[in-house]
Amino acid sequence: MACEFKFVRTVEFSETDMAGIVHFSNYAKYLEAAEHRFFRSIGYSIVAAPDGPRVGWPRVHVGFDFKKPLRFEDEIEIHLLVARLRSKSITYQFRIRKLNGDTPELAATGEMTVVCVSFTDRRSMKACTIPEDIAAKLEVAPANLLED
Q: N or C: more exposed end of the chain, with fewer CB within 10 A?
C-alpha cells in the first residue's frame, strides 16, 4: 500500500514572476503533478480509463504556507503524503524542498483535499465511494512522517 510519493524537478523560467520568484499559482501545479505521478505509481491514472470506473477527483480544498522563495533553475523535491483517507475523499499533505545547497531547505508546505465523484452525465457529478481497487492501494502515512 502507498502513503507517499516524491519527485524532483527544476523550476522553469516561465514559472517565475517579475520579481524572479516562482509565482504562487505554480505551487498548485506542482501539487497536481505529484498527485498524478502518485496515481501512476500505484497503477492508475487520475483520468478514468475507458474500461475502469468512471470517476473524477475534483479539488475541494487547497492551501499553502510559503517559507522560502523558489527561483529559476532551483532543483526542487515535491513530497506528497496521504494525510487522511476517507470513504469518498483523500487529503494530501505536501512539502516542497529546495535542493540546491548541501542541506534541503523547506520552501513551502501545502494541503489538498480531493473528492471521488462519479459522472451522471457530461455536466453532473456526484460524490461516490472511492473504488475498492484504488482504496486498497492507499494508506495514511505514519504520524511521524506527517509531523516532520
A: N
Per-residue cell: 1: 500500500
CATH topology of domain 4-147: Thiol Ester Dehydrase; Chain A (3.10.129)
Place of cell 480509463: 49
Residue 47 sits at φ, ψ, to 5 deg, of -95, 130
| Cβ–Cβ < 8 Å for 98, 74 | yes
Q: What is the average pLDDT score of the chain?
A: 93
For the chain, where are the E strands, in sequence order?
Answer: 4-10, 55-56, 59-66, 75-85, 89-98, 105-115, 117-119, 125-127
Q: Which residues pair with 132 in a beta bridge?
A: none
Closest Cα partner for 56 from 70, 46, 66, 42? 46
Contacts 24+ apart (CB under 8 A), 15-21: 15/72, 16/71, 16/72, 20/71, 20/72, 21/69, 21/70, 21/71
